[in-house]
Write a structure and sequence with these properties.
The chain is built from 7 helices and 3 strands; from the N terminus they run E-E-E-H-H-H-H-H-H-H. With about 220 residues, the chain is mainly alpha-helical. A 3-stranded antiparallel beta sheet has the order 1-2-3, with no helix packed on it. Helix 1 packs antiparallel against helix 2, helix 2 packs antiparallel against helix 6 and helix 6 runs antiparallel to helix 7. The chain is globular, with a radius of gyration of 28 Å. The N and C termini lie far apart (about 65 Å).
């Protein structure tokens, strides 16, 4: 008899825990189909191993890597603001947009754990100093708006690399959150108006830079 490849990976009901059931389908001498069962040791069953996705914490990163994460919201904000400068009022509104994103992450019970950890670190003087130091180093030497955007996107690529290497299950949510910060900054102040009034809510340059930021992070660009 040729047995069909049907194996139940469970302990057969009514049998002892030391055995499991294998079913085979064949034909007897008269050609009538019959089902045969063969007892096999339970230990021959290879169980599926489910690995729980690991969540990243601050201790998983070096001091320099953590600084990259801390500075990243500031770097995103300067990239978008530099794409199409909005004047003083617009700059204030755009800066407030990134600050609101950090505050929201602290208070949101559904926020990603790593995002929340970074946002919470801004509540300490050490965290703020590290973020500001990293931010200044990231854009050092840039004079023109285009240079600021280029420096910012390079820094975000480095952030993405750290997240991909050590962020675990938090990597994509963190990068997606940063892309959301870019969207919030772009939509914070209209471009081309006067004293913050009128103009276009999101300029073509800002929209392109949001896409550039998302590409540097390796996530889809949010609609703006």
């Amino acid at each position: 008899m040729v047995k069909a490849a049907l194996v139940e990976n469970r302990v057969a009901k009514g049998q002892t825990p030391s055995s499991a059931l294998t079913a085979g389908v064949g034909a007897n001498e008269t050609g009538t189909a019959r089902i045969e069962t063969v007892m096999i040791p339970a230990q021959s069953h290879v169980p599926m191993i489910l690995e729980e996705a690991q969540m990243a914490t601050k201790t998983d990163f070096t001091a320099d890597e953590w600084k990259l994460l801390l500075q990243s919201p500031l770097v995103v904000a300067v990239a978008i603001s530099s794409a199409d400068p909005s004047g003083l009022i617009g700059l204030i509104k755009e800066s407030m947009a990134s600050a609101r994103a950090l505050l929201a992450a602290v208070s949101d019970p559904d926020a990603d754990a790593l995002v929340k950890a970074v946002a919470t670190d801004y509540e300490t003087s050490e965290g703020r100093v590290a973020a500001q130091d990293g931010f200044r180093a990231a854009i050092a030497g840039a004079k023109l708006p285009a240079e600021l955007v280029a420096k910012a996107t390079e820094a975000l690529k480095a952030t993405a690399a750290v997240l991909d290497a050590k962020g675990g299950a938090d990597a994509v949510p963190f990068k997606t959150w940063l892309a959301g910060v870019a969207k919030a900054v772009a939509e914070a102040a209209p471009e081309g108006g006067f004293l913050g009034f009128g103009g276009t809510q999101v300029s073509d340059a800002e929209r392109a830079t949001v896409a550039e930021v998302a590409a540097a992070l390796g996530v889809p660009a949010p609609a703006v």
